[in-house]
Amino acid sequence: MLMKGKMEAEVVDAELVLPSYLSFKKVQMYEKYPKGQARGRHWKHLKQIIQAENYQNYPPDEPNYVNIESPPSMHPCKKICDITGFEAPYHDPRTNLRYANTEVFKIIRSLPNEYVQRYLALRNAAIVLK
Question: What is the pTM of this model?
Answer without folding.
Answer: 0.46
